[in-house]
Amino acid sequence: MSFNGSIAEDVLKHADIVKVIGSYLTLVKQGKNYKAVCPFHDDTNPSLTISPEKQFFKCFVCGTGGNAITFVQKYEHISFPEAVKKVADICDYHPEGLEKYSKPVKVDERKQELLKCLYDLNLYYQFAINTPEGKEGLDYLESRKLDNSYRSKYKLGYAPKDGKATIEFLLKKGHSIKTIEDTGIARMVSVGNYRDMNEGRVTFPICDIDGNVIGFSARRLVNDDSAKYMNTPETYLFHKTNNLYNIHIAKDAAKIKGYIYVCEGFMDVYALSKIGIDAAVAIMGTALTSEHIQILRSLNVEIRLCLDGDLPGQSAMMKICRNLSRSGINYRVVDNQGSDRDPDEILNEDGKVALEEYLNKLVGPTDFALNYYLRSNPLKTNEEKKTLIKEFLPILAKINSQIELDNYLRKLEKITGFDVESIRDVVKKARMNVGSGESFNKAVFQNFHPEREALQKLVTAERELLYQMSQSKAAVDFYEQKIGGFYDDVYRAIANYMVEYAETHENMDLNGVMVLVEENNLSNKDEILDDLTSLVSETHPKNCSEQLLENLLDTINDEKSRITNEDILAESLEGKSEIEKARIIAEFRRREMAKKK
């Protein structure tokens, strides 16, 4: 029977396209219309326009458009009648005859067989944990403070050590060996001989969004060479990339709370549940995929990321943040201040209030990213640092609050070592280019070399000390004892010749140092001699006092601390021959080893 078009028209007359699309996407009001990140192409800037007046949507980048029904049809990849029914449900309008023309649900027989098998298997596991053999598993769960109410809520169980008996139980329940194999739990030890891959382990069932068991994660109870957790492999039902642990419980709780926490593992979900937060899911040790994001987007609530505070956890969080930002989802991050404790540990060690305070320390994506770079310092080269500035530039250019902007600029200064005014200048330049067709492009950065400005104080202090060394052996001794090596490779070479000259002469003489340079066939000999002669013609303090040397030392140490060792090496190698590069690298490694002794 064909679908009655008048019903669809009736639904559209009573539908609010803003409400419909808003149940899937985050909308921002702009004048009479609304804007959103388009889900139908790889959109980063909101290009989808929704018109409440015309009840149409249109993406002016990929060209996709239509009404509320066509949006749902395209977004959920469902039939037209199904989309009409969905829009009617969202708008709470159900005209007579709608159910009659809805597309009948096609039963997936294979899926139903697998679900029934897994349902029976999980009941078996839940029964087994209360048997004498299952006490070991029961003791483990109770040690994790998971009492009977939590074991029942999350359907936790125990797989008996006799894995062959588990298979026989399922066969007696009427499931074929093919069905048992297809669930992913059967392990063939020999031809025709199958055992349960979860045998002897505590079982954590993984459910789909409707609450059906589709797989397991099983934890070992003995310390042996086996994997700590055994997970169901990819099956017809179970795909790790599009399933979130506890989504069947969390989805409804999230709509009530207005947010959902994305955690690392099962125990984190349980910890949040113990303090009354059921709106929590776990990514089960995998990356947050585009499928996961689609599931979270459909909830239309704020996402709160709560992953481990160690470096791997924070790095994973950074990747997730990039993906969520690209998708246009509203999200914040639990700011764990570098703590490596997870929610379960916080709850057990410090109690409910401490965990609540921890979960409510939420920061926006920009603050989290800057704090991440401040703590981990993963940027090694000037190019990486400039790339970071480029990534943040669109955000910085839109900030109107001077206090907020100054806060971010100071953090970027600490992260990169670039002078704050240099970063401020490029932000101003970006703002001037907005709307001109070249915003945030190469033109903004063509003369952006903050690393050179950051080095100015350091190089000036080194040159001043070099001059004092040319005049006084006391300055040479000071250099050897407290400096050991300059940042600038030419200055470093000159200093080495001065040290060599001072070892055999009572007084310093630049002409004598030049002779030493001339005697060596160096690729940069002319550059060294030019710098030596320039020192003579420059104006420098005449008296080489102890206070002057200490002041120079303070400046050199302060400026060096802003530049990573790898930056120093990279800058030193620029424009050098292969032989000279080898010499510089050897010298660099020698000094690094000496520091560690």
Provide a concise account of the structure shown:
This protein is of the alpha+beta class and 597 residues long. Helix content is 54%, strand content 11%.
Description:
This protein is an alpha+beta fold and 597 residues long. The chain has five domains: 5-101, Zinc finger, CHC2-typedomain (DNA Primase, Chain A), CATH 3.90.580; 109-238, DNA primase DNAg catalytic core, N-terminal domain; 242-371, Dna Topoisomerase Vi A Subunit, Chain: A, domain 2 (3-Layer(aba) Sandwich), CATH 3.40.1360; 379-448; 453-563, DNAb Helicase, Chain A. The protein is 54% helix and 11% strand. The longest helix has 22 residues, at 450-471. The protein starts with a helix and ends with a helix.
Radius of gyration: 33 Å
The end-to-end distance, rounded to whole angstroms, is 85 Å
**Class by helix and strand content?**
alpha+beta
DSSP summary, beta strand count: 16
The CATH architecture category of the largest domain equals Alpha-Beta Complex
Major β-sheet annotation = 5 strands, antiparallel
In the predicted model, the low-confidence regions spanning at least 5 consecutive residues are 435-440
- Total domains, how many? 5
The CATH homology group name of the largest domain: DNA primase, catalytic core, N-terminal domain
Task: Please give the share of residues in helix.
Answer: 40-55%
Binned strand content: 5-15%
Strand line-up in the sheet with most strands: 1-2-3-4-5
Q: What is the number of helical segments per DSSP (H or I, 4+ residues)?
A: 28
Silhouette: extended
